[in-house]
Specification:
Elements (H helix, E strand, L loop, with lengths): L3 H20 L4 H16 L3 H7 L2 H9 L39 E10 L9 E6 L19 E5 L5 E7 L4 E2 L5 H9 L4 E2 L2 E7 L6 E7 L18 E2 L2 E2 L4 E4 L2 E3 L3
Parallel strand pairs: 1-11, 1-12, 8-9
Antiparallel strand pairs: 1-4, 2-3, 2-7, 5-6, 7-8, 10-11
This protein binds 3-methylcatechol and fe (iii) ion.
C-alpha cells in the first residue's frame, strides 16, 4: 500500500542528493567509499550519533516540539546515551558515587504547569557525563547506571539533587563519526550539559537539556542543540556551586 508521506519526503530527499552528486561531479571512487562509510557506521551503532553531529536531529526536534511557544520549557534532543530504568534517589541526594571527581554542584528547581501550578510526583530522570567528559558506557569499573538517577518532585513540585559539574564534552573520536569529523576538520565539542526527561501522567513528557550560561561552546555546539533559554547561571554557594532549573510542562 502506497505511503504518500513517505513518497513526498523520499522524492524530495533523492532529488536533493542527486543534485549534490551532479553539481559536485562525485565519482565512483568517492561514492562507493561513502556508501561503505554509512554501512560501517550502521554496523558500529553510530547512525544516531551521525544524525546528531550533523545537526539533523535538532531540526526534527524543532519540527516535533514547540513547547516554548506555549510557555513551556523548551525541548532538546535526547542524544544517543539515554538508558531507561535509572535507580531512584530521594530529593537532596547525589546522583554520583561518593568521592566523584569534579566541582560539587547542586541543581534545584520546581516542576510546574505553564500557569505556575506545582506538579508534584513528576519523575525527573537525569543523566550526564563525568568531569572527564565520559558517559557511563565510556568508562569501565563503575557501578551500573553511573551518573544516571531518577527522583520525584515533592508536594510543591520541587526537586533538588547533588552532582558534579559536567564539562564541555567531545563526541567520540575513535569511531566512524570521529574519523569523519577529523577529515572535515570540524571540532567535536558540545557545551557542558545535563540531560533531563520529566514525566507525569496528565502532562506531556519533556526531554530536554540544561546548559551553563558562561560555557564557551554554547553557541558552537557540534550537535547545534544548545539553546540560550536552557542555559542557567551558576552561583557559588557554601563549598559548592548552585543552580536553579525550573521546568514548565504542557498539559496533555
Ligand atoms: C551527547 O552527549 C549528546 O548529548 C548528544 C545530543 C549527541 C552526542 C553526544
Ligand atoms: Fe549528552
Amino acid at each position: 500500500m502506497a505511503n504518500p508521506r513517505l513518497q513526498e519526503v523520499t522524492t524530495a530527499l533523492v532529488k536533493s542528493v542527486a543534485q549534490v552528486l551532479h553539481d559536485h561531479r562525485v565519482t565512483e571512487e568517492e561514492f562507493y567509499p561513502a556508501v561503505g562509510f554509512l554501512a560501517d557506521l550502521a554496523q558500529k551503532g553510530e547512525l544516531g550519533l551521525l544524525t546528531d553531529a550533523l545537526g539533523l536531529t535538532r531540526v526534527v526536534d524543532d519540527n516535533t516540539h514547540q513547547a516554548e511557544q506555549q510557555g513551556g520549557t523548551a525541548s532538546n534532543v535526547l542524544g544517543p546515551y539515554y538508558r531507561e530504568g535509572a535507580p531512584f534517589i530521594d530529593t537532596g541526594e547525589s546522583i554520583t558515587p561518593d568521592g566523584e571527581p569534579g566541582e560539587a554542584l547542586v541543581v534545584s528547581g520546581q516542576v510546574t504547569g505553564v500557569d505556575g501550578i506545582p506538579v508534584p510526583g513528576a519523575v525527573v530522570d537525569v543523566w550526564q557525563c563525568n568531569a572527564s567528559g565520559e558517559y557511563e558506557h565510556q568508562v569501565s569499573g563503575k557501578a551500573d547506571y553511573y551518573l544516571r538517577r531518577r527522583l520525584h518532585s515533592d508536594a510543591d513540585g520541587r526537586y533538588s539533587f547533588r552532582t558534579i559539574k559536567p564539562v564541555p564534552y567531545e563526541i567520540p573520536k575513535w569511531g566512524p563519526v570521529g574519523s569523519l569529523l577529523a577529515q572535515l576538520d570540524w571540532h567535536a565539542f558540545r557545551p557542558a550539559h545535563l540531560h533531563f526527561k520529566v514525566s507525569r501522567e496528565g502532562w506531556k513528557t519533556l526531554v530536554t537539556q540544561m546548559y551553563f550560561q558562561d560555557d564557551e561552546w554554547l553557541h558552537d555546539d557540534r550537535v547545534n542543540a544548545a539553546k540560550d533559554d536552557l542555559a542557567v547561571p551558576v552561583t557559588k554557594g557554601d563549598g559548592q556551586l548552585e543552580t536553579t532549573f525550573d521546568i514548565r510542562l504542557l498539559q496533555g
